[in-house]
Write a structure and sequence with these properties.
By secondary structure, this protein is mainly alpha-helical. The protein has 12 helices and no strands. It folds into 2 domains: 15-173, Tetracycline Repressor, domain 2; 174-311. The chain is globular.
Length: 311
């Protein structure tokens, strides 16, 4: 070192605040979940209405920005526990790549910005954003440690995304659709938790608690049974939605093609549970589906069946 009579033993890189680290922290890949906001647009067949599309697109952007802020707050709250986790310790805040104080400032800016975008759509949309934020923060602080309550909250948050789309467009609510959404995402959320229970049980014998969760390794039979049961209920509700709402209204040219959608939902959800029980589902089911070729194929078939029902 210049001016000092000593040798350089090692060099260390400074904190990496690259764009990639920030996108990881904001969990941009999780924005895919907010596509549910478009569901009312599609099911109401308003996708050819430019004004309606722009309204939903703006709502989607606002929701995604605000959600990123809530993800950052969650990571700040979990910083200590994440540092002791096998994979979560590599998260930007837990690893020290991004300062927690700076992250909190960015989170607040994102939340304010997201709510402002929602307010530009309508005050009810902004209000729905705040409800979503309150539930998310409650989940991060305490609810995620309560058995089954955590799954109930996650399923509710997915369903709330659809309700936000309904509020943005000011269209009629289909309670069949909301019930399907709740049971379907209850099952998917429980699938992720079931993986944690199964994997924890393989690491150690006996019945013992899972750190940071209210579950125990001996809960695997219960999480499996409850998850598969709610999956079947979701498929049943979707079938009743088609029979009781879609057929009588004659809103679709060829509604019989919608049974192809039902079939694909059943096949995909059953596959998710198979992988979950094997301990092979190492990601959120929705995120997993975007990277899994069989899931993408099943989704393409379901989309084709839906298009065939409309034209």
């Amino acid at each position: 070192v210049e001016g000092l009579d000593c040798d350089i033993e090692a060099e260390f890189e400074g904190r990496n605040r690259s764009l990639r680290q920030w996108t990881r922290l904001m969990r941009v890949h999780q924005w895919s979940k907010n596509v549910l906001i478009f569901a009312p647009l599609v099911l109401s067949q308003l996708y050819v209405d430019l004004a309606a599309f722009l309204t939903i697109l703006t709502t989607f952007i606002g929701m995604s920005v605000m959600a990123s802020g809530s993800y950052i707050i969650n990571d700040v709250l979990d910083m200590a526990s994440d540092r002791n986790h096998k994979t979560k310790r590599f998260r930007p805040i837990a690893s020290g790549d991004i300062d927690a104080g700076v992250a909190l400032i960015v989170a607040l800016c994102l939340i304010v910005g997201g709510v402002a975008i929602g307010l530009a759509v309508s005050s009810p949309v902004a209000g729905a954003f705040l409800v979503y934020l309150a539930i998310t923060l409650s989940y991060s602080i305490v609810l995620k440690r309560l058995v089954m309550v955590d799954i109930f909250v996650l399923a509710s948050l997915y369903t709330l995304r659809i309700m936000i789309g309904i509020v943005a467009l000011d269209v009629a609510i289909s309670y069949w659709l909301l019930m399907f959404s709740f049971f379907f995402f209850f099952s998917l959320s429980l699938a992720k938790r079931h993986v944690e229970v199964v994997q924890a049980g393989r690491k150690a014998e006996g019945d013992h608690p899972i750190p940071g969760r209210g579950y125990r390794t001996g809960d695997a039979p219960l999480t499996l049974a409850t998850g598969v049961a709610t999956e079947m209920v979701a498929v049943l509700v979707l079938s009743l939605y088609i029979v009781n709402d879609i057929y009588p209204e004659a809103a679709y040219a060829h509604p019989e093609w919608l049974w192809g959608v039902v079939s694909m939902v059943l096949i995909w959800a059953s596959r998710i549970w198979l992988l979950s029980h094997r301990g092979e589902l190492n990601d959120d089911p929705v995120t997993f589906a975007l990277r899994d070729r069989p899931s993408l194929l099943i989704g393409a078939i379901a989309a084709a069946a839906f298009v065939a029902s409309v034209i």
